[in-house]
Amino acid sequence: MATSLITLIVNGVKRTIPVEEEEKLIDVLREKLHLTGTKRGCDNAQCSSCVVVVNGKAEKSCLLSIQGLEGAEVFTVESLASQNKLHPIQQAFIDAGAVQCGFCTPGMLMRIYALLNKTIHTSKEDIRDALSQHLCRCTGYETVLTAGLLAQEYMLKNV
Amino acid sequence: MKYIGKNIERTDVVSKVTGKATFLDDLFLPGLLYAQVLHPTMAHAKIRAIDTMAAEKAEGVVRVVTGQGCSLSYGDNIRDLTPMAEDKVRHIGDAVAAVIADSAKHAADSLKLIKVEYEPLPIYIDAREAMQKDAQLIHENNGQYWHLDHIHPVPGTNIAMHYEVIKGDAEAALQEADIIVEGEFNYPLGSCAAIEPHGSIAWFKEDGSIEIWSSSICPTIIQEETARLYGLPVSEVRVHIPDIGGCFGYKSDVVIEELVVYIASFVKGYPVKYVTSRKEDFTSTLLGHGIRTKMRIGATKNGQLLALKAELLHTTGAYADTGCNVLMAAAHNAGGSYEFPNFYANAYSVYTNTPPVGAFRGYGHAESHLALECLMDRLARKLGMSPFELRARNYLGPGKMNTLGEMMNETNGDVQSCANIIEQELFATPKPTEDIDYYYGRGCAAVMKSPKGAPFSSKGCYMKFNIDGSVSVNMGGGDVGQGLRTVVRQVAAEALSINPSKVHVYTEIDTQFSPWEWQTIGSMFTIQGGRAIIRTANKLIAILKRTACQVLRVDEDMLEYDGESVFYKHDPTVRVAVRDICRGYIYPDGVTIGEIAQASSDARLPLYSNPREDGRGRLGVTYTFGVQAAQIRVSKKTGEILVDEFASCFDVGKVINPRNIRGQVAGGVLIGIGASLYEEVKFDNLGRILNPHFGQYKIPRLKDAPGKQFIAFVETPEQIGPYGARGIGEHPVVGVAPAILNAILDTIGVEFNDIPVTAKQILQVLEEKGRAQHGD
Prior knowledge:
The complex is a heterodimer of chains A (159) and B (776).
Chain A: E1 3-10, E2 13-20, H1 25-32, E3 51-54, E4 57-60, E5 73-75, H2 88-95, H3 105-118, H4 124-131, H5 142-158
Parallel strand pairs in A: 1-5
Antiparallel strand pairs in A: 1-2, 3-4, 3-5
Chain B: H1 13-17, E1 33-38, E2 45-51, H2 53-56, E3 61-66, E4 88-89, E5 97-101, H3 104-111, E6 115-120, H4 127-130, E7 159-167, H5 170-176, E8 179-190, E9 199-204, E10 210-214, H6 219-230, E11 237-241, H7 257-264, E12 271-275, H8 278-283, E13 288-299, E14 305-317, H9 324-332, E15 342-351, H10 365-383, H11 387-392, H12 415-426, E16 438-449, E17 459-465, E18 471-475, H13 484-496, E19 503-505, E20 509-510, H14 525-552, E21 559-561, E22 565-568, E23 571-577, H15 578-581, E24 585-586, E25 592-593, E26 598-603, E27 624-635, E28 641-651, H16 658-677, E29 708-714, H17 731-734, H18 736-748, H19 759-768
Parallel strand pairs in B: 1-12, 10-11, 14-15, 18-19, 28-29
Antiparallel strand pairs in B: 1-5, 2-4, 2-6, 3-5, 7-15, 8-13, 9-10, 9-12, 11-20, 13-14, 16-27, 17-18, 17-26, 21-22, 22-23, 24-25, 27-28
Helix pairs in contact in B: 9-10, 10-18, 13-14, 16-18
């Protein structure tokens, strides 16, 4: 099997990693870097549990071939809290009661992170559409939507 | 109360929002190997030959395993399960062989190199086909497997269990009835579809013990069955349960664990991990439902219910161990929230060539409620009575006897108050009138659910005071996302009068340390676990008082406890701090008296019994009642059903955590909406699942959620539960499908009996009636 080296900036740290030809970003993150906060919930890019932020965009890491990512800047859920202080988006998900089993949570957090970092004044519909790309079997989504809106409110206050 | 009824923060949220919660697939162990499993290409066949030569030589492969010579069988109700198929396959998700390799990818790649020769057998997808007289047997040994006494297999047929519930004489009473309604309803096979797929790790260790990790809420059953299968003392099997990414039923039983243990037995000394793909999560774990219910209800012209007669056919799948109790629960509770003086349920669990059925939130109740609650609305229409009025005349309540023969009393809850709240919320004003795009309507359903337990279904609790007055609580309840550890924190804080921030709740389950717990199922944790906590807290307080009475030289019964101290009740200045007596009391010279403040206890459902010959007995013990209703609109153009508002009200006895309980109901309702409108596992004629992926099998997204969920609670205290609380986890699913079907009837005047009711079906009936609107 052909192995090559690739360099990524993962959560702000330069990482040079041996990768295989057909490897996906999710496997590199989980198996090689042990960043297991990124979750796999399906086989066909439907659930969005594996969403991470790549070069500022929310991406399903199960779809991204590692080969095209040389030099990419990747943020995973592990990057959100700093010095044990939670990010406002994380706090919003807690305060809204949007976390039940928590398996889909990292993907949602990173989707909202990408969205609000791009346009903090985004509309309620945009937040709703963004979260509509995620599958959650626990919450019935009402707290999830509340969390997305609350995250925007918290981030606006902090700005 | 200080902490009950408050929105105390969940104990696990920070780990979950930081990505540090550890689910099964996040675990890595020294020397870890990976397994992948080969499944058959047809659902029923004899295995003629397996050739593993090529796979054994493939890159990274350590070992190839087949079921040949595997004579192990397991199951805690009917022992009809085997870890891997030995000489025949019975469904499309059976395990035929497995590859153990140095990576999951290598294991998967080499699976393709295994050649299997099959001799096809007839394939039965539905119970009705498998019950036909000339049907081939899916289990030649049906009837010979070890099983619980009250499960009656019919040897020489595909009937794994025949079960009857008999109260009075239903047939005679139906003859006397002024009015009869009847119908045949189908709740099809579905997937619990937790976002975390199933996974397990098994490790035969050099010291002869077995260590297992699994995404499961029955560690004790896994431990006991594994010990029995491999001839070890139960104490030599250790089962860990990490964080669980949703359950909804199908992680309640032994599912993939014995497969993984069997595979790992070929590479002793190495841990082996197997995590299912989403496709395998459909084909090779457990499905839910699959119950077809024929029901007849007879009543007087005044709307007094006289009798219910039901036949329940369960497409229970290739193995019946996990499905038989689902059907039993469906039969027990087919009378729902009403008193039927005469009742007969005739239920058959039938082997089919489909994946086995197990628990799915609602556990048989949703299935029989679909028939019952649709028929109640139709009966009301026939009688010209409001659906609320008809139900009100027949609700169970104090002094009334349910179908199982249990007498209801006030503490079982107040369904009428729930009905009043729902009627006020959704039915007090006229429904919206038809407009250019939509028809509007609404429907309701009453709900009753009791746990399907076992006589020994206890929950244990261990607590200790730490030297700073904080408390550690250890239990075996699996938190699958419902937040039961938060309930533990709140009940313990209340019972010990200490701030919840000083209560530390266990983060994982490990049979080496965890108190005994049967299975965390049946919406029973709050009620039983909560009681166990209070009992343990009382023991702790008693220990503190026993020590304090020596220190303070005051009789034990003259002492009081307030969370901080133990003191003489007539002179509170005579006191000793908990922190000074929790390790015993240490005198200045070091001499120590008294006991360590640690205690354990447990609780079960009092007098819960096995069924008698007539299928009845103390089989519910605790009940939660409620009423649910839907207000919908139906698109004239597309046939799409939109749920504008869904309303639920349950008598939960006592709300422990308002935010968490609302989350339970909101989430449960959406699972019910998915089942009502689109979820169904479909098969082709080889028994292959046609839609084993998200997208193909649609589960609701945010945009599919109701415009509004109204959620309310009545609080009539229950006798057993902590502070009067009763179970709620599964109940929100139970009334959703009939409420929606009744709303469809109200909206377009069409009776549907089978779910899901799709937009395509609605459009078709609208077209037939000339009521569709064709846009351009």
